[in-house]
Amino acid sequence: MSIVKPFKGVRPPVEFVAEVASRPYDVLNSEEARKEAGDNDKSLYHIIRPEIDFEPGTDEHDPKVYAKAVENFKKFQDNGWLVQDCKPCYYVYAQTMGSHVQYGFVVAASVADYMAGRIKKHELTRKDKEEDRMKHVRATRANIEPVFFTFPDNPGLEEVLKKVTSVKPEYDFVAADGFGHKFWVIDDDALIDRITGLFASIPAMYIADGHHRSAAAALVGDEMARQNPHHTGKEEYNYFLAVCFPASHLKVMDYNRVVRDLNGLTDEAFLERIAVNFEVEKKKKMYKPSALHNFSLYLGGDWYSLTAKPGTYTDDPIGVLDVTISSNLILRDILGITDLRTDKRIDFVGGIRGLEELQRRVDSGEMKMALALYPVTMQQIIDIADSGNIMPPKTTWFEPKLRSGIVIHKLDD
Prior knowledge:
With 413 residues, the chain is α+β, with helices and mostly antiparallel strands. The chain has helices at 17-20, 30-37, 45-48, 63-78, 111-115, 127-140, 155-164, 189-200, 211-227, 267-277, 322-332, 354-363, 378-387, and strands at 4-5, 10-11, 83-84, 90-97, 100-110, 119-120, 142-143, 147-151, 171-174, 180-186, 205-209, 239-246, 252-253, 255-259, 278-283, 294-299, 302-308, 346-350, 369-372, 397-398, 409-410. Strand 9 (171-174) and strand 10 form a beta hairpin.
């Protein structure tokens, strides 16, 4: 049973939302955030990337940086750039990327559900990144940025989405990256109760993106519960901020690889080794993988289709993944790359950058070859999370990313 509840969102007045809202903290570095914020005092980067308010090169993990986040969060509220709703609400958040639109419920999700495994994950987290976000949550006593959940399609919740989004949204703006954002407030008590009941019928939710933020938010909530001698289980810190999308709404993009060298092989020898486990077909133009177990290779100015031969992979939830097939049969066995997280010979390119970016990085001489993968499916992600397995690194790329600062959840109220 998935437990969610409404909450008193802290959010910008309509006239400020486009200035406040930002990309997530983890998709850009300090200098990129500094540049993107520019002279915009209302940019959320001053809260989620507060090192931009110090000299360039300031360590983002310095205690004074977390203190600055607290100071700026208070400043935003004092200046009226962020205002708290007077009653607990649910919200609907819609994102548009080209012709693709996805609608999600903004909720307070249960820490207990996360700790009990009813909120399921498919990626490993790094303790250093968890601890950074935990310090930020502890300092601000808020979930400044949401996490990105999905759940199996539910007809009742789909009906609610259609009803809520049939009227004019509270927010409606297009960000600098061209993605559209709309936002509705649900403050009707009967509809709030219906949403709570419908989510209670869902056996599990799944983290699509934001594993570190989920872990940090839940661990701080659990920590606060253990430190409170009068803990009742009803406190606001027992919940954290999430946007929950029906699985059919989401678009999973490919996550591709570029490699610096061929491990001492010539182009010809490399292709001969590839042909042992793959059907290799040279293409006359840029080629995009057409189905699961089909890959595209860019090498020596040419594009190739690679199709894994029958018997070269297993049918278990991990073994059947294209990232596993390519990691084992190409990166490990031929190129000697065994650790995707640490090996400096490999880099990763999100599918939103397109095949053109793969070709550019090879043609520039920076990289020797590029490998494009067919995107994983939402069902594969759910199957892996349900089986208790963890996906290999750099498997999923979701677009569009959630915009931060549209709504915030305080742990004290």
